[in-house]
Amino acid sequence: MRKPLLAANWKMNKTVAEATGWLQGFCPAAEGSEEAVECAVCAPFTALWPMAQELERLGTALRLGAQDMYWEPAGAFTGEISAAMLGECGVSYVICGHSERRTLLQEGSSVVAKKCAAAIAAGMTPILCVGESQSIRDGGLTKEWLEAQLFESLEFWDNAQEIVIAYEPIWAIGTGQAASAADAEEACGFIRQVLRERAGEVADGIRILYGGSVSAGNIGEFMACGNVDGALVGGASLKAESFAELLRNML
Ligand code: PGA
Questions:
Q1: Distance of alpha carbon 251 from the chain centroid
Q2: Closest ligand 1 atom to 95 CA
Q3: Residue minimizing CA distance to atom 7 of ligand 1
Q4: Which is the closest atom of ligand 1 to the Cα of 236?
Q5: Best probe residue, ligand 1, of 232, 237, 239, 242 (max atoms within 8 Å of C-beta)
Q6: Which residues share a beta bridge with 231?
Q7: DSSP secondary structure string, 157-215?
């Protein structure tokens, strides 16, 4: 009932030439998979427009995503980007509240909530990231932390059906130490329970992704979990061939 989503998060990687070159490698390799798995690439802002044009030329179902956006429609917000600017580039998904932004740029959950709401209002789907640090896990506070992050980042429970959640434990991101499938299932199941308590049966349709050192080698274990509906992938998405292999292992 929930179509799996495989989303690449390129972070601050790839020039325009590298991004379009990646598409030329990945798209033919992904052909025929779109019925089973939805695939998206969250690219740097500068690559989005040329990627949209390249996708049109290649005629593929791959979706485009952004890694952030601002919540106001326009104005004196130096360095920021609006939903309309992203929409013009064919963006369907926007990552909101990635832990790197929460940590490096002190982005708090109230700001993340505004971004999620603005993305939905503009017809895009936020990929809301939540996840605990190693010290929170060690202290046995993972569930409390996840619940608080969900409540603070989701002021808009009315349209909760229009979001994707990514459970990304901070200790697993970019470390090569992915969570075990059992830990991912426990956290994603808990997130769904929180969503159900708050938003009712809509929760059964919300896709919850796992992210953190996902690779072609471990994706199968995560996809075997009942509450994991796909993955948000950083490092293993940077090479078209390894991302295509990862996709194949989801089919
Ligand atoms: P990783 O990054 O796959 O390199 O661990 C995931 C993410 O930060 O979204």
A1: 19
A2: 9
A3: 234
A4: 3
A5: 232
A6: 6, 210
A7: GGGGGG-EEEE--GGGTTTS-PPPHHHHHHHHHHHHHHHHHHHGGGGGG-EEEEESS--
Which residues on neighbouring strands pair with residue 137, listed in sequence order? Answer: none
Per-residue pLDDT of the chain (251 residues; tens, 9 = 90+): 899 999 999 999 999 999 999 999 999 999 999 999 999 999 999 999 999 999 999 999 999 999 999 999 999 999 999 999 999 999 999 999 999 999 999 999 999 999 999 999 999 999 999 999 999 999 999 999 999 999 999 876 677 778 999 999 999 999 999 999 999 999 999 999 999 998 889 999 999 999 999 999 999 999 999 999 999 999 999 999 999 999 999 99
- The set of protein residues with a Cβ atom below 6 angstroms from ligand 1 is 9, 168, 173-174, 211-214, 232-236
Using the structure block, give the residue that is written with the tokens 């796909």.
230
Predicted TM-score (pTM) of the model is 0.97
CA quadruple 92, 168, 129, 14: dihedral positive or negative?
A: negative
For the annotated catalytic residues, the residue numbers are: 98, 168
Closest alpha carbon to 86 in 70, 107, 106, 102: 70
DSSP state of 71: S
Q: Which of 217, 210, 208 is nearest to 233 (CA)?
A: 210
Whole-angstrom distance between the N-terminal and C-terminal Cα of the chain?
15
Return all residues near 225 (Cβ < 8 A) that are at least 6 apart: 181, 184, 185, 188, 210
